[in-house]
Amino acid sequence: MDLATVLDGFTARDWQGAADDAGPLRVAVVGLGWWTRDEAIPAIADSRLCATTVAVSRSREKAREVAAEFEGIEHGLSGEDFHDGAATDAYDAVYVATPNATHLEYVESAADFGKAVLCEKPMEASVERAERMVAAADEAGITLMIAYRMHTEPAVRRVRDLLRAGLLGDPVAVHGHMSQPLMEMIPNPDQWRLDPELAGPGASVTDIGLYPLNTARFLLESDPVAVQASMDASGEAFADVPDERAAFTLEFPDGVFATCTASQHAAQSSHIEVIGTEGRARIDPAFFANEPRQVTVTREGTTLDVDFEQVDEMREEFDYFADRVLTGRDPEGDGDHGLTDMRIIEAIYEAGEQGERVEL
Amino acid sequence: MDLATVLDGFTARDWQGAADDAGPLRVAVVGLGWWTRDEAIPAIADSRLCATTVAVSRSREKAREVAAEFEGIEHGLSGEDFHDGAATDAYDAVYVATPNATHLEYVESAADFGKAVLCEKPMEASVERAERMVAAADEAGITLMIAYRMHTEPAVRRVRDLLRAGLLGDPVAVHGHMSQPLMEMIPNPDQWRLDPELAGPGASVTDIGLYPLNTARFLLESDPVAVQASMDASGEAFADVPDERAAFTLEFPDGVFATCTASQHAAQSSHIEVIGTEGRARIDPAFFANEPRQVTVTREGTTLDVDFEQVDEMREEFDYFADRVLTGRDPEGDGDHGLTDMRIIEAIYEAGEQGERVEL
Questions:
Q1: CB pair distance less than 8 Å for A247 and B254
Q2: What is the per-residue pLDDT across B141-169, written as a single tens digit (0 to 9) for each?
Q3: Dist. CA A244–CA B39, nearest whole Å
Q4: What predicted TM-score, i.e. pTM, was given to this entire model?
Q5: Which of A226, A246, A267 sits opposite B278 (nearest CB)?
């Protein structure tokens, strides 16, 4: 396989198995923050295989407002209504986009009702709670997918194809980065992302460092065996977390080192690059939903820039999830996959605190 | 100052103080490997302020051959001849490009003769020997410059100008990388770069990891306070060194983390990128002498690619060195600057071995 063959199929949905009319998978969206309203619900409306039929919020009033605002949403429920089993006939699957530390109970209820779950990342605020989530899903035999939208990003998939085809040789090093000016985006020091009780162990690795971390795993198709980390949190709004910013190195088997940085107080920027024995590939920008994707591949002295038509990653993600549910196949980013990230993240915070390499 | 003003002067020699006819500074080149013959001597021939007048090698025969090969070289000397003070009237300065662990004695002799010295990087094979080199130069009152050719690279200087002008805001993270397929370039497992007695503590950090390391210091105008590192040396030719490849994080003051990788067994590749609170700048390719330079600056959502006319970095470096000697000014990359790198490198190897953060 050559470079052109790999890159030519760049917008193809190489994962879709269900017919376009196999759905819709009816989705209850849980957690109605800006992400769900501005990104998730419109993406579902635009999808081939999904439809939003239920909206769930802590506040029943807000849920009903959102239900009234969007066509096709039949029910606006409070969290309590949801846990009590209201309107279970009106949805087949649940999308959980509440603060990290509140995912578990929604997934447990969904599992009780036999509903498939797409849960935002990181899947929970601690390894212990993530393990309980996986156990609940396993016991109920439901599909549990963690919402790694990078997995259905055509640019990311094509770079993995290049690696699989051996066109970059053996991978040697990975560089990854994601940063955003959180306090400019959401100028509220009391937001849940800065509250360890709701967000988990930190602010930058958990929320955005996760992107280069998980994408490195996805591209290398391998999991790190040890981590090291450096952290800093000098900004005022970051007094309760260890990491306004962080640098961490993931040691993969065979001496492949992925070195990553993340910051909640820097210009919006993201990239991931794999350098191999025969060449390299870089995706930049890589991770923000509102940016185009560009892949630069260098091999044998030749550099090729490929501009990727921007796809709606959230739409692709919802259709991938629906596709897996409708065809009875496991998603790649399943509960165990997410749990591995949780263990890595916990190790990164431990390494950062202790100034020591932590083995996984 | 705006972006255009900074980038417009991109090929200017903002450092030259001497008149073009102030020289030539007559240089004795010591160590006649491929680098000296193919890169250094031609660069000096092309310089405004230098001329090669003496060639020194372990073998007098080789030195005389090289002297005969290049116009203007008056003397071919053995190392012994050099140390004995032969032809000291024929040169004003010494360029030392022998294996790392053999720099010290040449610099000591040059200092004895009152000659200025341009010494290849890393300046020696250990901190202890580097300290002796600095002491010898200080005692003799000679100029000692370490050959960081990145310091006169226009692309690197312009990115520093952007940082100084505050156009990227406060720096937050740096990514740097350098790799080359050493065994394809020099297919000899007995080469000095793989021999700790000649090269120093390792193979990749000392030889090429030094580029992102030193360039991060140069761009940030700051020195790291702690380091972490991961190393691997599984390739057969690398049995005697800890690092066929390495990843290391430099912790600079104010929580600025520079995360770097280096490998002697990967495709040729190099970059350095600074991400700040207001924008970012990337140089890619960054470090190999035979590649053009491209700088990509992203600020306020706008990305600007600037292709830099390739300058002969070695020529610039020799002229910078001559300029400092002829105008009686200290070079930026002086002995103390090089010694700081040596201490950082030693800390990186210690951190890699122990799996622990090492403070400087």
A1: no
A2: 999 999 999 999 999 999 999 999 999 99
A3: 45
A4: 0.95
A5: A267
